[in-house]
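Supplementary notes for students who missed Thursday's class. We covered one full example, reproduced here. Read the sequence, then the structure, then the short commentary at the end.
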Amino acid sequence: MQAIDECVGRVAEHFKSKLGSSLLEAYKIGSLAHGGFSPIYSDLDVGLILSCSSPPVEMDRMIAEAKGLDDEYGKKISIFWGNPECDWGRLPALDRQDLLDHGVPLLNNRKPDFRRPTKNQIREQLSQTIEGSWKPKIDELSQLRELEPKERKPYIRAILYPARLIYSWDNLVVDSNDRAVEYIYNVKPPGLDLLPIEKALACRRGKSSAEEVFSLGADLNRQFESTVSYISAR
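Structure (token representation):
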């Protein structure tokens, strides 16, 4: 983890040098902050809160430069950014919630201070994710006859997503995969097969392989339908 922490620290210093006083704070977010980080399956999520009146015109270039700071970890870096009013940038509702609840300051030890997303905003984002990314990926992954290395990460994410989705839908917060899987074992959504989800969590922990999860032959479409049925009833 030391190398990862050093990489994230360099990313924060990079944006400080480029943005100056308009950068209020940089934060660790995601699994680096709320727990359950996996060196193989997790991204390195960094949140930036800016005080400028409009989005920096060269933000895309700065993000590309940040990704180029480390040959090994650069491709895993994800930057979430915006102003405290949350009216521009790339800081969706769930990531704002994660930053507020779990964000770890990297520069000035400044706690985040902006309005929390509403229930409607969080559920709207989750609904968009279902149709915009989860369902299309399920259609693609369901066609696989064997699991190629490039598909390991998206497959494990797709298996775990029902737990993450249900946890955030019910509780309006973001937390670790561990907490989300524990939660669905408590609520036991009808029709949802929990075994592949549990096995995927073990995979993230390094106690199983993606191929072992794949060999279970989980019905991704049934998992999707059971999850959507559950949240629709809520």
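Commentary. The chain has a mean pLDDT of 96. The first strand starts at residue 23 and ends at 29. If anything here is unclear, bring it to office hours.
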